[in-house]
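Morning. Coffee machine broken again, so started the prediction first thing and wrote up yesterday's gels while waiting. Chain of 206 residues, entered below exactly as on the submission form.
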Amino acid sequence: MTSATRSGPRAKPSAGDVRIAAVAVPVWFGFFALTPGLFANGPGALLSDDIDLRLIAETVLVVVLTVALTLVFRRESRNLFARGRMMWCFALPAAALVALPFHYALPRPLLLYVVWMAASVLWQDYLTFGLLQTFLRRILPGWGSVLGVGVLFMCVHLVYLPERFFSPLPALAMLILGAVLALLRSWTGTLHVVLALHLSFYYLFA
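Came back before lunch.
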């Protein structure tokens, strides 16, 4: 376990860090709504009534926004995607991707699903366990940022997908999942393990 998880912040958070964290939460909440395929009437619906074209448009949108955010938050992004031995964990989604054509049963074209899920996972995890957790960690102890991200991860699913998660067990599952992924990010310091596990799930159970 890293020192970031064991102990609190080394110094009292600055007023600037508090303001940034306070702004980051509602901005994250709004940006999360752009996740491709999250809503039937998402931003892609402005361009086409065709489901596949909607997903393509929404996927392109979040890829462009992700690139833009990495340019704005260069220092944070370098840390989140730093090269290291944890990159070997991407062998898991790679293996799942190889097996995907043999069990894929969803109505969307396979190639579209592969790219859509990769962009969606990158967008969700970069926003949530990357930037949001980074900003919260500057004003909270390690355990506080992990728990805070877990609670927010649960809340965003309750608000945007109430028909699936607005009941005790699904809500608790989202809380635990969010906290576990946040803890993995805290332990490893990068997003590699979080991204690999999240993407593997979608490729294994499609």
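The chain has a mean pLDDT of 93. Going to sketch it on the whiteboard this afternoon.
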